[in-house]
């Protein structure tokens, strides 16, 4: 009898975490490494949020809480959804979990049966397909091409839907491309979804506050209210409030789904960390000015990285609407040989040679379902970004 489960054989460890770990190991061994792999803001959690957490500890708010969130936080989340997204949810339509990741996992675990299909636009956040598989469903990828700035079209969505489609996962702005759907682009997708009542919409709005220029964020249930009853709108404080380590994510949706997700959570982790919940409450209800400051900072970094990468021979880097990633195409580098003698047969070889020869850590595109590309997370200092881009340029200049 095998000790490890069959389920484990179907999933793979997160490649983004693997790159970050390798970069950290090289750094610890004394190499001059610039990590552009991690998907988290490089600055600290705002002081008012930290203070709220300290107060919660001092006031003894350190016990179990309601499984899917304290009432104060649920109320604050309802207010956030109404104010920022025009969505009316009652507190019993809200669930809070240990990061956006657990929220998505709960939703899939609570709903997927063998044979159920989940449509995932590619390039996608690495965890979606593996979570679907863990939940017993079947991921169905729909690829957004470079020509369409990594977004999928209504015709592609229509063609992917079958009677077994249970969910359509929507993530805008996207990890890993930063691509954001405009209201009209999203409306064209929701028009398709209206025709298929068996399909539920799982909207992952994690990068809502990180949008640039005059781009306006929008979410499916807001764009098409007729989909409200079959949409789970998920979000979290990790990226917007620089709170990745605190592990708080949340969602709003129909009561029966929210209840089912709570049941999964009650038999796995129970409530998310009590102290983190009070910190998230302060994040959502306290001063919001730093959101604007961070946005400006990330926009400047995006512009720096896009302009520098577009000077590299063989690389084409579109300008994304949001998040803190760019997803350059490296078709022009494939088939060449690096200065260190490595044949660049695919994007994994590119990322590996880049790390070995220049100390710049990026994540290869195959991990996200579209090649040949790589993902840069520009959530690091301007100086490190400029130096990393200089090294990428010299690496590309050296390709023969
Ligand atoms: C698109 C997307 N959704 C969800 C998450 C998970 O966020 P959390 O850290 O809150 O679990 C991430 C984190 O990288 C993400 O990029």
In words, what does this structure look like?
The protein has 400 residues and is of the alpha/beta class. It folds into 2 domains: 6-44 and 290-397, Aspartate Aminotransferase, domain 1, CATH 3.90.1150.10; 59-285, Type I PLP-dependent aspartate aminotransferase-like (Major domain) (Aspartate Aminotransferase, domain 2). Helices cover 41% and strands 12% of the residues. It contains 14 helices and 12 strands. It has helices at 6-10, 15-28, 47-58, 71-85, 99-111, 127-134, 154-160, 183-194, 220-223, 255-266, 274-285, 289-309, 347-358, 382-397, and strands spanning 34-35, 94-97, 117-122, 138-143, 165-171, 200-204, 231-236, 249-252, 325-326, 360-361, 363-364, 374-377. The strands form 3 sheets. Strands 2-8-7-6-5-3-4 form a 7-stranded mixed sheet, sandwiched between helices. It is globular. It starts with 5 loop residues before the first helix and ends with a helix. The model has no long low-confidence stretch (mean pLDDT 96). The structure holds pyridoxal-5'-phosphate. The site of pyridoxal-5'-phosphate has 13 residues, from helix 5. Belongs to the class-I pyridoxal-phosphate-dependent aminotransferase family. It catalyses: L-aspartate + 2-oxoglutarate = oxaloacetate + L-glutamate. Its EC number is 2.6.1.-. This is Aminotransferase. One of its GO terms (molecular function) is transaminase activity.
């Amino acid at each position: 009898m095998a000790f490890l489960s069959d389920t484990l054989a179907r999933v793979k460890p997160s490649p983004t975490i693997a790159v970050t770990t390798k970069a950290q190991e090289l750094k610890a061994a004394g190499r001059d490494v610039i990590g552009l792999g991690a998907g988290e803001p490089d600055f600290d959690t705002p002081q008012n949020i930290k203070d709220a957490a300290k107060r919660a500890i001092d006031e003894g708010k350190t016990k179990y809480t309601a499984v899917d969130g304290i009432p104060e936080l649920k109320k604050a989340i309802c207010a956030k959804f109404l104010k920022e997204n025009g969505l009316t949810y009652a507190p019993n339509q809200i669930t809070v979990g240990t990061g956006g990741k657990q929220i998505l996992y709960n939703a899939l675990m609570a709903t997927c049966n063998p044979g159920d299909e989940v449509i995932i636009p590619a390039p996608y956040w690495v965890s979606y397909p593996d979570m679907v598989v863990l939940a017993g469903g079947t991921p169905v990828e729909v690829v957004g091409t470079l020509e369409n700035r990594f977004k999928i079209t209504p015709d592609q969505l229509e063609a992917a839907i079958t009677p077994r489609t249970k969910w359509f996962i929507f993530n805008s702005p996207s990890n890993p491309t930063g691509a954001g759907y405009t209201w009209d682009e999203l409306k064209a997708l929701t028009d398709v979804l209206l025709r298929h009542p068996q399909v539920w919409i799982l909207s992952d709005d994690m990068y809502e506050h990180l949008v640039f220029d005059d781009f306006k964020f929008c979410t499916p249930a807001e764009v098409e209210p007729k989909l409200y009853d079959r949409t789970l709108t998920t979000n979290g404080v990790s990226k917007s409030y620089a709170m990745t380590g605190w592990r708080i994510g949340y969602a709003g949706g129909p009561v029966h789904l929210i209840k089912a997700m709570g049941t999964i959570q009650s038999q796995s982790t129970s409530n998310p960390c009590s102290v983190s919940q009070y910190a998230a409450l302060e994040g959502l209800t306290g001063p919001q000015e730093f959101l604007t400051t961070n946005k400006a900072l990330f926009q400047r970094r995006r512009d720096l990285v896009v302009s520098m990468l577009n000077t590299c021979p063989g690389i084409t880097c579109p300008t994304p609407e949001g998040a803190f990633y760019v997803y350059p195409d490296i078709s022009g580098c494939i088939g060449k040989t690096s200065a260190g003698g490595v044949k660049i047969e695919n994007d994994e070889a590119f990322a590996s040679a880049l790390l070995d020869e220049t100390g710049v850590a990026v994540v290869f595109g195959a991990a996200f379902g579209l090649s040949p590309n790589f993902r840069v997370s520009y959530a690091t200092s301007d100086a490190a970004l400029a130096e990393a881009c200089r090294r990428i340029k010299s690496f590309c200049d050296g390709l023969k």
